Amino acid sequence: MEEVRLQKVLAQSGVASRRKSEELISQGAVKVNGKIITEMGVKVTKKDLIEVNGIPLTKEKNVYFLLYKPRGVISAVSDDKGRKVVIDLLPGVKERIFPVGRLDYDTSGLLLLTNDGEFMNKITHPKNEVPKVYVAKVKGLPSQKDLMKLEKGIKIDGRRTAPAKAWGLSRDKKAETAIVELTIHEGRNHQVKKMFDAIGFPVMKLKRERLGTLDLSGLSPGQYRSLSANEVRDMLNQSTM
């Protein structure tokens, strides 16, 4: 009978991404046949009883959803302050799903949710360079020279960002605001906002328009849809380029 590493089984079962599964193991949250496992590399088979936080592991059918996240919603499965989370927007989904990456509380746009931990890990891992396209309303009127700084990479939090693509969509000289589209391949904390702050044009409003081959066509804020098998395959293919 085939033996598989425990963290891989957890990820494939939708518990969390591979990295998060490793954290659960190191924290003592995982049992195999009644024994707490805290070491990496332990292998299991289909006959083994695996529990996470006391709940037996069951293999669900993999599901994939695209949500148009509105502003004012947390990209999480729960919130200790009682605020609305993205899971609340998918009440008909019975599987235990998780957001793939995150969008800030006040950022709207495209967010994927799934119970497939391997898919989640491939889409979010920086080495796979899945493009993320944002549209930002910024305070001020950045010039092409300003935007070139973003394209070449700019230092935030002591580390330079990877090359990006940026271009102005519109300018309102009277209000002194501009709309800028920015494409990045990373996913650092508050990265887009910090990049614009670094060149002196604070973000007033932010939306993620596209992720890889996916966009928000046909959806309004708060709505979601399932991904087709072709869309899932295309995203996985793009993530391994």
UniProtKB/TrEMBL annotation:
<dbReference type="InterPro" id="IPR002942">
    <property type="entry name" value="S4_RNA-bd"/>
</dbReference>
<dbReference type="GO" id="GO:0005829">
    <property type="term" value="C:cytosol"/>
</dbReference>
<dbReference type="InterPro" id="IPR000748">
    <property type="entry name" value="PsdUridine_synth_RsuA/RluB/E/F"/>
</dbReference>
<feature type="domain" description="RNA-binding S4">
    <location>
        <begin position="4"/>
        <end position="63"/>
    </location>
</feature>
<dbReference type="InterPro" id="IPR042092">
    <property type="entry name" value="PsdUridine_s_RsuA/RluB/E/F_cat"/>
</dbReference>
<dbReference type="GO" id="GO:0003723">
    <property type="term" value="F:RNA binding"/>
</dbReference>
<dbReference type="InterPro" id="IPR036986">
    <property type="entry name" value="S4_RNA-bd_sf"/>
</dbReference>
<dbReference type="Pfam" id="PF00849">
    <property type="entry name" value="PseudoU_synth_2"/>
</dbReference>
<dbReference type="InterPro" id="IPR050343">
    <property type="entry name" value="RsuA_PseudoU_synthase"/>
</dbReference>
<protein>
    <recommendedName>
        <fullName>Pseudouridine synthase</fullName>
        <ecNumber>5.4.99.-</ecNumber>
    </recommendedName>
</protein>
<dbReference type="InterPro" id="IPR020103">
    <property type="entry name" value="PsdUridine_synth_cat_dom_sf"/>
</dbReference>
<dbReference type="InterPro" id="IPR020094">
    <property type="entry name" value="TruA/RsuA/RluB/E/F_N"/>
</dbReference>
<dbReference type="InterPro" id="IPR006145">
    <property type="entry name" value="PsdUridine_synth_RsuA/RluA"/>
</dbReference>
<comment type="similarity">
    <text>Belongs to the pseudouridine synthase RsuA family.</text>
</comment>
<dbReference type="Pfam" id="PF01479">
    <property type="entry name" value="S4"/>
</dbReference>
<dbReference type="GO" id="GO:0000455">
    <property type="term" value="P:enzyme-directed rRNA pseudouridine synthesis"/>
</dbReference>
<dbReference type="GO" id="GO:0120159">
    <property type="term" value="F:rRNA pseudouridine synthase activity"/>
</dbReference>
<keyword id="KW-0694">RNA-binding</keyword>
<keyword id="KW-0413">Isomerase</keyword>
<dbReference type="InterPro" id="IPR018496">
    <property type="entry name" value="PsdUridine_synth_RsuA/RluB_CS"/>
</dbReference>
